[in-house]
Specification:
Elements: H1 2-20, H2 39-49, H3 59-74, E1 79-83, E2 86-87, E3 92-94, E4 97-103, E5 111-117, H4 128-147, E6 156-161, H5 164-167, H6 169-177, E7 184-192, E8 196-204, H7 210-219, H8 228-234, H9 242-250, E9 254-261, H10 278-295, E10 309-314, E11 318-323, H11 327-347, H12 353-358, H13 360-384, H14 399-422, H15 427-430, H16 432-448, H17 456-471, H18 477-483, H19 485-502, H20 507-520, H21 522-525, H22 531-551, E12 561-563, E13 566-570, E14 575-580, H23 587-593, E15 598-599, E16 618-622, E17 631-640, E18 643-651, E19 658-662, E20 671-674, E21 677-678, E22 696-701, E23 708-715, E24 720-728, E25 746-748, E26 756-765
Parallel strand pairs: 3-22, 5-6, 5-7, 7-9, 12-25, 13-26
Antiparallel strand pairs: 1-4, 2-3, 4-6, 8-9, 10-11, 13-14, 14-16, 15-16, 17-18, 18-23, 19-22, 19-24, 20-21, 20-23, 24-26
Helix pairs in contact: 1-18, 1-19, 2-4, 4-10, 6-9, 7-10, 11-16, 11-17, 13-14, 13-20, 14-19, 14-20, 14-22, 16-17, 19-20
Length: about 775
């Protein structure tokens, strides 16, 4: 009994350590040595940067730019501002203003580039984490580096980009238009998709990652958090960063360092100085200093590689790497060892064929029931709490409680399954099924998802456990628990990482990981008596977490409800509507849309650009107010052969911040130039904007009050309609509309055009 208790404590401690080791536990103070990174010093700068929302084009955006330039100049660096128009692949046009500085090295080889962005997401985010944290990480890191008064081998370029939130526009103009871009050998990019948690390292490369990983290990950051599975998944998702432009446009490699926890703050009015996790900022600092020292003196001409490496991190050992070429040899060796141990076990009569086969029943039952239960339980929870739909990124304020609840319930299912089907069997017979499934998984990932091939490492420790259990009638359960530590170190953080990073819709993946971990730990759990009691215990804990989630399901001042409201005026029809993206209306939106709103059928034909392609849900007729319409002039109209060329200038009379331009998807555009930037033609058709979503041509985010200039060619006989939506973020400040402020338990919904007065103007060209 005592030994079993010690074994359980070892596993519990391993779980605790697997999470505790992800982040620094102490925050560097204001009086830290001048040559070291200080989070407290960085926070002083962050407070200035995140004082107000500072999206591209607003006044606070200019103030933040001037502040960053001032801070760089305090360090003795000469800065420059790069300005140009950029049209992203998503059809977002803006005029970013990049902040650039350079530290000269004593060599003429490739330069190291430090990268983050200073624009916040429109229109209500304060941008403290995304990416004020990245900006101050670089500012404080460079200050500490320069304090050593040493000249690096490589030049160090500092790029604080602009327009990242709109479509990586600042990175685009640097990579493709700035002469320094061709000198860059490696990029270190600091980002965020939440306001806390560990910062994950993700590699961006078009080739193999072998040399990058070797150099990363040499740099030896103190708290590395990375695995090759995360990047394999990252590459499948539409979550580009500024670093993506370097990789895709100029084949420049780099490292992303991004934290993703507390995802509910991402791009919202909650992304504030106060809510940024201080340990997370310290974690970013723990990356930049060793990497800055190492790569500023490394041979950046030798970064490219055709070979890929598996990599993962564990406490104490930090980053472990090995070549992809080892995947199949390690897998084959594991399979042969498994077969050999089966033969050895049956010969020694430690294994029983019937009991071994019966061992598949509880494991497979646990796997299927846990996955299905968690999946459908989450679907049911969304029905019970329809307000969760308003959180577009899919991670609720009480999301961590749900992860804990389903983890406990998956463990309960595991214990109960083994209680019902194999409570009296020897644990050695029960270990065969999970090892078989793990080897099957390793075969599948070796074929389809090589980045996850480090899964074979826990299998090896499982095979060692199997050997000990076959050889000894009563193996040391403490030793078996110690052999389970690598499994916990490697896989336990994934239980939390997946739903935090990808949303609670995949919390069932967490349940699957719980069962897979439990299966290999059956070498310990199999010796436990009273598995039914353990199951009840975890049901109780899971219920407690569900109750906690329930009591935290309401929106409060600390956890406000995202909502949306727009006033849309059709200038041609002289009609107006209130519009929203919300699925569940509240008291504030109902006061305009009523409790019986209309479906936004007509307005949703044109989907305004948003991260999740959100469309309007409801509208309600509104009184027509005296809103200044933009001045629209056709300055050029000529027919040459079978093509007609037009030039249209749209000038705002109310300081527009954004234009959205639409045309029916059947309309053909042979060419289109917007503020001097040409839309890229489709290779097959040699036309532009052919593959467009819901009629959308492009978005233009205004800065410097510059008009929208369009020059385009169309078939001469084509009837063409353009719908131009002009938006300002002054809905709550317009006296004619008299909109009350939101309640304290509400905030502007992120990812969509919000709090806006919009005018729709239709141009018909016949």
């Amino acid at each position: 009994m005592f030994k079993r208790s010690i074994a359980i404590l070892i596993i519990c401690f391993a779980v605790y350590w697997s999470f505790d080791a992800l982040l620094p536990s102490k925050i560097s103070t204001i009086d830290a040595p001048e040559t070291s990174f200080s989070s407290q010093r960085a926070l002083i700068q962050l407070k200035e940067i995140a004082e107000k929302p500072h999206f591209l084009g607003n006044q606070a955006h200019q103030q933040v730019r001037e502040y960053i330039v001032q801070e760089l100049e305090k360090l003795g660096l000469e800065t420059q501002i790069q300005v140009d128009y950029s049209l992203s692949k998503w059809g977002n046009l803006s005029k970013p203003k990049n902040i650039i500085a350079r530290i000269k090295g004593n060599d003429t080889s490739k330069a190291l580039l430090l990268l983050s962005h200073y624009d916040s997401n429109p229109h209500s985010s304060f941008g403290a984490s995304d990416a004020g944290s990245g900006v101050v990480t670089i500012l404080e890191g460079i200050r500490a580096f320069l304090a050593e008064n040493k000249t690096p081998k490589n030049d160090i370029i500092i790029l604080i980009s602009d327009g990242e939130e709109l479509g990586l526009n600042g990175a685009d103009i640097f990579v493709n238009k700035h002469p320094w871009a061709k000198e860059v050998g490696l990029v270190l990019n600091f980002e965020a998709r939440g306001s806390g948690g560990p910062s994950y390292m993700l590699i961006e490369t078009n080739q193999g990652n072998a040399n990058l990983m070797k150099e990363f290990v040499k740099a030896n950051p103190e708290f590395p958090v990375a695995n090759s599975l995360a990047y394999s998944i990252y590459k499948m998702l539409p979550n580009d960063t500024d670093l993506t432009r370097f990789r895709t446009d100029k084949d420049i490699d780099g490292f992303n360092f991004a934290f993703i926890d507390d995802h509910f703050d991402y791009h919202t009015a909650l992304d504030t100085y106060a809510r940024l996790d201080r340990n997370t900022l310290e974690h970013q600092g723990s990356y930049i200093m060793p990497l800055l020292h190492h790569f500023s003196n490394a041979n950046l001409n030798n970064i490219k590689s055709t070979e890929d490496y598996i990599y993962f991190t564990v406490p104490a050992f930090k980053t472990i790497i090995y070549p992809f070429t080892w995947i199949w040899p390690m897998l084959i060796l594991a399979i042969l060892s498994f077969i050999g141990l089966l033969i050895y076990g049956f010969k020694k009569k430690s294994l029983n064929a019937t009991a071994t086969l019966k061992g598949f029943i509880p494991f497979f039952t646990s796997l299927v029931v846990s996955a299905l239960f968690t999946y459908f339980a989450w679907q049911g929870i969304k029905l019970l709490y329809p307000q969760y739909q308003e959180m577009l990124h899919g991670f609720t304020y009480n999301g961590h409680a749900y992860i804990a609840a389903f983890t406990c319930l998956a463990l309960a299912i595991c214990f109960y399954s083994y209680h019902i089907f194999n409570n009296d069997e020897k644990p050695v017979n029960l270990l065969i099924a999970p090892l078989f499934f793990w080897l099957l998984i390793c075969v599948l990932v070796a074929l389809e998802l090589q980045g996850a091939s480090f899964f074979i490492i826990p299998v090896y420790f499982g095979l060692i456990s199997l050997f000990l259990m076959i050889r000894q009638q009563k193996p040391s359960v403490i030793l078996l628990a110690l052999l389970g530590i690598p499994l916990v170190f490697i896989l336990a953080p994934l239980v939390k990482m997946f739903p935090v990073g990808l949303g609670l819709k995949i919390v069932f993946v967490s349940a699957i990981f719980v069962v897979l971990i439990f299966g290999l730990l059956i070498s310990v759990f199999g010796f436990l008596k009273h598995k039914k009691r353990w199951a009840y215990c975890f049901v109780f804990l899971g219920t407690i977490f569900l109750i906690k989630a329930h009591f935290n399901s309401k929106f409060t001042a600390e956890t406000p409800k995202p909502n949306s409201l727009l006033y849309v005026l059709d200038a041609n029809e002289n009609t107006a509507v209130w519009a929203t993206y919300d699925d569940v209306l509240d008291a504030w939106t109902e006061s305009f849309l009523t409790d019986n709103p209309d479906q936004a059928t007509e307005l949703s034909k044109n989907t305004i650009a948003s991260k999740y392609k959100s469309s309007f849900t409801f509208t309600k007729k509104a009184a027509v107010k005296d809103i200044a319409k933009p001045k629209i002039e056709i300055t050029h109209d000529t027919i040459i052969g079978n093509q007609r060329q037009l030039a249209i200038c749209v000038t705002s009379l109310r300081n527009a911040v954004r234009y959205e331009v639409f045309s029916d998807s059947t309309t053909v555009f042979n060419s289109f130039v917007i503020n001097g930037i040409s839309a890229i033609p489709e290779e097959a058709s040699e036309t532009v904007f052919k593959e467009r979503l819901n009629n959308r041509l492009f978005s233009y985010y205004v800065s410097d009050k510059e008009p929208l200039d369009m020059i385009f060619t169309i078939p001469a006989k084509q009837k063409t309609q353009l719908q131009i939506y002009e938006a300002t973020y002054d809905l709550l400040n317009n006296k004619a509309l008299n909109i009350p402020q939101r309640e304290a338990s509400m905030m502007p919904k992120p990812f969509v055009l919000n709090d806006a007065i919009v005018t729709k103007n239709t141009i018909i060209i016949e």
